[in-house]
Amino acid sequence: MSTAKYIWFNGEMVPWENAQVHVMTHALHYGSSVFEGIRAYKTPQGSMVFRLEEHVQRLFDSAKIYRMNIPYTKTELMDACRHAVSKNDLDSAYLRPLAFIGNVGLGLNAPKDVPCEVIVGAIPWGAYLGEEGLEQGVDVCVTSWNRLAPNTMPTGAKAGGNYLSSQLISGEAKRHGYAEGISLDVHGHLSEGAGENLFLIKNGVLYTPPVTACILPGITRDTLMTLARDAGYQVREEAISREALYLADEMFMTGTAAEVTPVRSVDGIELGEGKRGPITAQLQKAFFGLFDGTTADQWGWLTPVKD
Ligand code: PMP
């Protein structure tokens, strides 16, 4: 397990081992937390946080859906993220802001307007599905677990409780020897991976499930849609059938942790040439180019860690 020296905890930097909560914490019992995953990259211009503002906005959006009261401003939390990287002497890092209902009693609904507790952790973290996966592509399967139905729990909120669904999806896939599991929505259309959004490429066109397919609208998904359109590709958000997976020329998954990971097979069926495809490689290069300086950041996506 990766650790660091400090965690930002309710406005202060506290030593890692002192960042503790009580066992009666509401979120521990009822999943009442919202969180983010953000990466900071080492770039030629110094350490940069990727799409910090959008991630912090999504944290506040998730909290709004659950009527949770985050007692900090967006600017304060953006500063906390940057500080969590620099205070731990990291230049690349995975950041974990988390807002949760604390030890406020066991009533299912927390008392109105009770402030959340908030932490920001920053740890070193490499390629989520492995360095080799980024180059060779990974083998995935469709799991037997559907993604949450839209009128059960909102997948547009990045809430702790949603990740029980993700654990079932990825756990089943891993037990069967796959790198990751992908799920269908309750209507049987393609939804998303346990922690990634999906892109298929067919005849030079990119396809990705729409937000109505019960996905988390990923910030990396938005990044890749922008980079692909910028490179002249058509990107379509539309309902995708399961069999379209098997017939795709190329496929990749996106996420803050997974970055841009090519998929070389689904359910044991090879896609295209059974390795990373050329358009995937081109878009991967454009994505990682944002951090090695070969793709100009014309969108203002990088925020310096240091003032
Ligand atoms: N879907 C789920 C369920 C996720 O957990 C994630 C990771 N946050 C994503 C998609 C990808 O989102 P992002 O690109 O914003 O990290």
Automatic annotation (TrEMBL):
According to its UniProt record, in which pathway does this protein act? Answer: Amino-acid biosynthesis; L-isoleucine biosynthesis; L-isoleucine from 2-oxobutanoate: step 4/4; Amino-acid biosynthesis; L-leucine biosynthesis; L-leucine from 3-methyl-2-oxobutanoate: step 4/4; Amino-acid biosynthesis; L-valine biosynthesis; L-valine from pyruvate: step 4/4
UniProt entry keywords in alphabetical sequence? Amino-acid biosynthesis, Aminotransferase, Branched-chain amino acid biosynthesis, Pyridoxal phosphate, Transferase
Cofactor(s) recorded for this entry are:
pyridoxal 5'-phosphate
* Protein's UniProt name: Branched-chain-amino-acid aminotransferase
- Enzyme class, broadest EC rank: transferase
NCBIfam families linked? ilvE_I (TIGR01122), PRK06606.1 (NF005146)
Q: What is the lineage of its organism?
A: Bacteria, Pseudomonadati, Pseudomonadota, Gammaproteobacteria, Aeromonadales
Pfam families (UniProt xref): Aminotran_4
Q: What is its EC number?
A: 2.6.1.42
Catalytic activity, as annotated: L-valine + 2-oxoglutarate = 3-methyl-2-oxobutanoate + L-glutamate; L-isoleucine + 2-oxoglutarate = (S)-3-methyl-2-oxopentanoate + L-glutamate; L-leucine + 2-oxoglutarate = 4-methyl-2-oxopentanoate + L-glutamate
Role according to the record? Acts on leucine, isoleucine and valine.
What is stated as this protein's family in its record? Belongs to the class-IV pyridoxal-phosphate-dependent aminotransferase family.
Q: Which PROSITE patterns match?
A: AA_TRANSFER_CLASS_4
Entries under InterPro entries matching the protein: Aminotrans_IV, Aminotrans_IV_CS, Aminotransferase-like, B_amino_transI, BCAT-like_C, BCAT-like_N, BCAT_family, Class-IV_PLP-Dep_Aminotrnsfr
